[in-house]
Amino acid sequence: MQNTKSFEIYPLFSTPIAYASIDNDIPLSVIDNLEYYPYDDGSGFSSVDQNILLSPPFEKLRFEIETLMNSYLFDFLKFGEGRIAHTRSWINFHKYGHQAPTHNHTNSMYSGVYYFTSPENGGKLFFMRHNNDLTFVSPTVMPLIREYNLYNSHTFGWQPKPKDVFLFPSFLSHFTDPNMSQENRYCLAFNYFFEGQMGGNTGYVNLQVLKDDTKEQI
Q: pTM for the complete prediction?
């Protein structure tokens, strides 16, 4: 008879991703009637307004997102100083066949995505780690995995629903499946930096994110 011992797994040095659902009362017509431009790679469209959360129709949603972001950083990750500062926010618009290719967010510390619409067959959202990232194996030896989970996956995905929001460190690579539905997929992407007095002794810094008065930039 096989001797099986119980044990615990600790997700040490993990990359926490926050997930929640946030209601909004923004009419879809407001989002649909924004001015968009196509991405150079033909993967979809972005709103011309790159500070969408600063617009009056999105004021309440911004408050909810920043409340969640503060809880993620200060209640869960237990940050003891600093404060979040909005740097960019824009809406991605994906028609049939469009997708978000693998990317991360530069010049940002924490990012997120909020789904206004997520049609059936509209595509999953995936996060990924690169093969040269050291986790549970080295990049030179990789046994076959018979069942993937949070601990052993190179990619991990969710099927988002309307009003879903995901928060994550900006360095984390992510992508979406193609939208294979006949409905448009609209999601809000946003970036936040950290500012204020942080650290001590030789590690002390006082950062300030300058406010950008330019509402629309490509």
A: 0.92
Tens of pLDDT, residue by residue over 53-96, are: 999 999 999 999 999 999 999 999 999 999 999 999 999 999 99
194-212: pLDDT as tens digits: 999 999 999 999 999 998 7
| pLDDT confidence tier of residue 216, bands split at 50, 70 and 90 | very low
**Strand boundaries in 63-178, DSSP class E:** 83-94, 110-115, 125-128, 155-158, 164-169, 173-176
Where in the chain are the domains? Answer: 17-112+155-172+189-194
Residue 47, both tokens: 């709103």
Q: Are 165 and 112 in contact (CB under 8 A)?
A: yes
The set of residues, in sequence order, having a beta carbon less than 8 Å from that of 169 and lying 6+ positions away, is 15, 109, 110, 111
Q: How many CA atoms lie within 13 A of 15 on its CB side?
A: 22
Measure Cα distances from 42 to 87, 114, 117, 195 in Å: 25, 22, 20, 35
Tally of CB atoms within 10 A around 167: 22
